[in-house]
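A common beginner's mistake is to predict each chain separately and then try to dock the pieces by hand. The better habit, illustrated here, is to supply every component at once so that their relative placement is modeled jointly.
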Amino acid sequence: MLKMNETIDQKILNDMKYRVWQANLALEKANLVVLTWGNVSEVNRELGIIVIKPSGVPYATMTAEQMVVTDLEGHLLEENALKPSSDLPTHVYLYKHFAGINAVVHTHSKYAVMWAQSGRDVPPYGTTHADTFYGAIPCTRQLTQEEVETAYERDTGKVIVERFENDNIDPLAIPGVLTIGHGPFTWGQTVNKAVENAVVLDEVAHMALFTEVLNVKHDLLPNYMLDKHYFRKHGANAYYGQG
Amino acid sequence: MLKMNETIDQKILNDMKYRVWQANLALEKANLVVLTWGNVSEVNRELGIIVIKPSGVPYATMTAEQMVVTDLEGHLLEENALKPSSDLPTHVYLYKHFAGINAVVHTHSKYAVMWAQSGRDVPPYGTTHADTFYGAIPCTRQLTQEEVETAYERDTGKVIVERFENDNIDPLAIPGVLTIGHGPFTWGQTVNKAVENAVVLDEVAHMALFTEVLNVKHDLLPNYMLDKHYFRKHGANAYYGQG
Amino acid sequence: MLKMNETIDQKILNDMKYRVWQANLALEKANLVVLTWGNVSEVNRELGIIVIKPSGVPYATMTAEQMVVTDLEGHLLEENALKPSSDLPTHVYLYKHFAGINAVVHTHSKYAVMWAQSGRDVPPYGTTHADTFYGAIPCTRQLTQEEVETAYERDTGKVIVERFENDNIDPLAIPGVLTIGHGPFTWGQTVNKAVENAVVLDEVAHMALFTEVLNVKHDLLPNYMLDKHYFRKHGANAYYGQG
Amino acid sequence: MLKMNETIDQKILNDMKYRVWQANLALEKANLVVLTWGNVSEVNRELGIIVIKPSGVPYATMTAEQMVVTDLEGHLLEENALKPSSDLPTHVYLYKHFAGINAVVHTHSKYAVMWAQSGRDVPPYGTTHADTFYGAIPCTRQLTQEEVETAYERDTGKVIVERFENDNIDPLAIPGVLTIGHGPFTWGQTVNKAVENAVVLDEVAHMALFTEVLNVKHDLLPNYMLDKHYFRKHGANAYYGQG
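With all components supplied together, the output reads:
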């Protein structure tokens, strides 16, 4: 069953597995996952491979070798592989439609889930939000019964992309989403950035929840502040960090 | 006073004690217990024994040997045993009436207790809930004064079973309950699963609390989503995990 | 300045200092104190001495030897002693008026402070509360300007005792109080019990806060449940624990 | 590019760097920062130097040597220095206008940010607040679009100072502020005190949030209690601590 091009550099693959494994462990260290509720993947579009966490394996015993390798359609490429995360079809769909991303993270982190369960976008209430997300973090529409029963995980990707396309949202400017009733997906150009975005999303979801308790008027950050904070960290004129 | 059938394999008993001891420690590591507020038991129906935590012993000094062995009515089977958890009669009652369960966990975990104190079922607001609990997590009715004064711990079991029978709830599909004003009981086919269900119950109780703060309409997860998430993890067509 | 009866057994004194020191450290381990916001004392009524934490000394560098020894009026008994906790006069007042207690704990633990700042008693919403506190945890009246400016710390004790006497509350049945706008004091027959009561008070304060968010009717635990849970742990017919 | 007066004692500079580095690490240990969201600086007015955290460097790998040295206008004084925190102009502005302060701390600590995002002052609800802050912790006005686009970080300092001057607030009596939509700045006569004030600000912000949930009347601490608690810790008649 070895379908993978044998010429793929084993070093590149092992490095991907190592990064994906480390990123999964990082989610637990950041208190974003309970039990096995989280998964990270990375894509290498040139080589045509995705590496993703196996399904239901505890973080404590998980090894880099156990990371699962698939092609860009999510088909297994290694013999004796463990089953991939059941959310793999969502990752595959996102890689197909969001050209600029190379890693996807899914968690059930508490505060992001609370917003997802409330079916609401997380409004941009402050600069902590604006530093990473250039606008509200969208929440998807409810999947139809047919979508759920036919291809649930793929169509979870579909409703994410649908929302970004309908509202003309740039997935690199808003590198995360809430799937209604379920939880957050984040992404990035690197696996570390995708994990960082998952950390930020839960943190701003926490802050936004109690900002609303304190301020029933729900005032947003002015747009010029949103611009200022997003662009002092991103794009050609960024001046935050050592880059 | 050694009433236990001497032919019981000591190895089996020691293994049960070890598992129950470890499960009690796991509750503390998962931040579900303060002081000594929690207890775990396991039943072996064939051998006719229950192993349960002793009453009021601190986790830091508790040993596997101290776990208390009783028959299926809760009568002590070992000489010089410590007193069992005062909640033992609840465990006994649950084992008698819920045929498929082999372990019971009781805690005063914060968020589950908040719901128990509010006297409310935890509604299924999301897939994190549906992955483990196939519907609302029920809260029992208040015990009557007579029940409390006559056989409080046994009748705590009775009102749990009453709620499950009245509402036709399958205890394996909803492996947990809130006893009103008191706190959660969870159970499972193994002691590890019962502990895991206690972890999940507190987590979804936390998420549900603030979902209501964010969404005053209290929209539930659609039933077809509840089905999808429960059955992708449970039953013949489950496809989550490596099993 | 050595005023202490030289015949006091140094062993007894060192043991008291050790216990008080350990109890102060236990507050920090239980996440009840930030910075130096907490103090524990123990009294030996026969020997006529109180041992209390020094004022403003960080937990990390605090030693058993630094614990401050006073007589029952709060006068220093050792040469070169550090200054005692500024709350000493409150401790002294409580020891004088609550005959059955041998230790006092004061913290600024978060959830207890929230209730103190709201000026409200913590209602008995559940059995976790009833296991330790046989009724609402009272909040004192506001001190008058004159009381604050004249003998603030002593009169903090005075308003505590006033509330217990006015409402006929037994300080051993309700081993804690909230001083309005300030925070909790707890006590007990031993220093370990007083610390434990501080842990329980903050935990039930946390649970009660969000019980109210979930249940706007604010239903209390029935009195017969309060009785049941309090008396299964306390008094002649208690059956909880190994005692 | 070495512009610094060569006669500056290297020992003094290294000590400043060490203190600023340790203070930055202390923020992380106190759970006040996520990722790299925080910065600390110290000024030596006689020597005319400021030492501040570099921009965007992870705490785990940050070294004392990497701390950035500038003059009192924020101009770099060492060759091959890393880029300073992007908030440096705010620190510079505060040092210029608040004569008594020698250190500034900025974080995105959760509870302080919630209040900043709500655009509200933190009211003095209790003595934990009054022990450190002699009155409400002010929140700045929104910056205008022109201010944001012209000199955002400097004018963040400007709106802070404007609020203190307009309301006649002594920055040593209220050693912290919320910048609207953004987060807290605190300061002090030493870097340790500025960090401590950041810890206290987040703690009292947390307590104040849920005090309001419990007490819809939002009663404040009486002024004579505010006086008592502030002045038992500060000024000529302070009697708290060993000082």
